[in-house]
Amino acid sequence: MAERIDGKAIAAAVRARAAEDAAAFEKEYGRRPKLTVILVGEDPASQVYVRNKRRACEEAGILSETVLLPADTDEKTLLAEVARLNAEESTDGILVQLPLPAGIDEKRVIAAIAPETDVDCFHPVNVGKLFHPREATFLPCTPAGVMEMLRFTGIDPRGKRAVIVGRSDIVGKPLALLLLAADATVTVCHSKTRDLAALTREAEILVAAVGRAGFITADMVREGAVVIDVGINRTPDGKLCGDVDFASVEKKASYITPVPGGVGPMTVAMLLCNTLAAARARVFSGKQ
Ligand code: NAP
Q1: Is 27 an active-site residue?
Q2: Which of 68, 85, 94, 232 could staple 117 via S-S, CB 3.0–4.6 A?
């Protein structure tokens, strides 16, 4: 039976460390780090995500501002708002909550965020820096959260076969680079992959980032594998669930992350770390 990796507890430890770091920053520089989130429209899920980010900042002693823009905001107005925040001295981190309403080019908006404030790590400059993650100011929050869970649990990816199912820009691709930098041998699978189960069965570390409930079944998992479930889905009766068929895979894996309470809480925790990193980088660059 697999040991459960408790994402809530690990995230709480990361958040406590962020709170200590934020207090030390304030003591040294006489101000708190600050995150500004732009939310366009009233998508209920986005509102929940933004609220969670704000609460996490407040608990950690990081200032948090939410800029609310109406759903009919056009791209020009949003770009002007991003430019205003780029120039604002008190803002260390800027995050534009995605998805944006139809008609706004997300790539253009992300590219307009100053890379040194891009705490989501979506700007092309920051994505490029993932070729050498140890030299990067930011790591994207969900992949960084997965790496932190492995580290915290004492699982060293070095030399291990890691298989990621999913190649999105926000999870699969950046996580592949982080695992590679940690000396894993990485395979990235996607919807066109032939004989997926044969590949997943080779994985000593198996990451599911597909977005389909119960997609990874026990027959796709190697005995003793570490199984990380990034997926967030709803069961027909409305409950949260991951991409992994937890009940059956738990019997075969050595470690497994639950959903909820696994990777999810790590994402916000890592955002706090990125905001602190942005604040420190700003001070070191002399901009204060
Ligand atoms: P995405 O952009 O929809 O990407 C899904 C990936 O799964 C794609 O690469 C797709 O392949 C692949 N895929 C789909 N069907 C497949 C199949 N039958 N066989 C193999 N691969 C298949 O999703 P995402 O943004 O990465 O998110 C993935 C999941 O993680 C979602 O449930 C999302 O809600 C969750 N998520 C959680 C967090 C968190 O904080 N825990 C953060 C982000 C995302 P193609 O590229 O070929 O289409």
Answers
A1: no
A2: 94
The predicted structure's pLDDT at residue 286? 79
Peptide bond into 99 cis (omega under 30): yes
Nearest atom in ligand 1 to the alpha carbon of residue 192 is: 47
In a domain, 4, yes or no: no
CATH of the domain at 95: 3.40.50.10860
Question: Is there an atom of ligand 1 within 6 Å of 166 CB?
Answer: yes
| pLDDT at position 287 over 80 | no
Residue 57 domain boundaries: 29-114
Backbone phi and psi for residue 60, each to the nearest 5 degrees, phi listed first: -90, 0
Tell me what the mean pLDDT of segment 156-169 comes to: 98
Is 13 within a domain?
Answer: no
Q: Is residue 203 part of a domain?
A: yes
Centroid of ligand 1 to alpha carbon of 193 (angstroms): 14
The yes-or-no verdict on residue 168 having pLDDT over 80 is yes
* Number of domains making up the chain: 2
262 Cα nearest atom in ligand 1: 41
Whether 119 maps to a domain, the answer reads: no
Residues 95-107: tens digit of each pLDDT? 999 999 999 999 9
Q: Report the separation in Å between the CA atom of 210 and the middle of ligand 1, taken as the mean of its atom positions.
A: 3
Ligand 1 pocket check for 196: Cβ under 6 Å: yes
Q: Which amino acid is at 21?
A: D
pTM of the model: 0.97
CA of 154 to the centre of ligand 1 (A): 26
Per-residue HEC secondary structure of 135-192 comes to: HCCCCCHHHHHHHHHHHHHCCCCCCCEEEEECCCCCCHHHHHHHHHHCCCEEEEECCC
State which of 171, 235, 274 you would mutate to test the pocket of ligand 1, scoring each by most atoms of that ligand within 8 A of its C-beta.
171
Residue 27, number of CB atoms within 10 A of its CB: 8
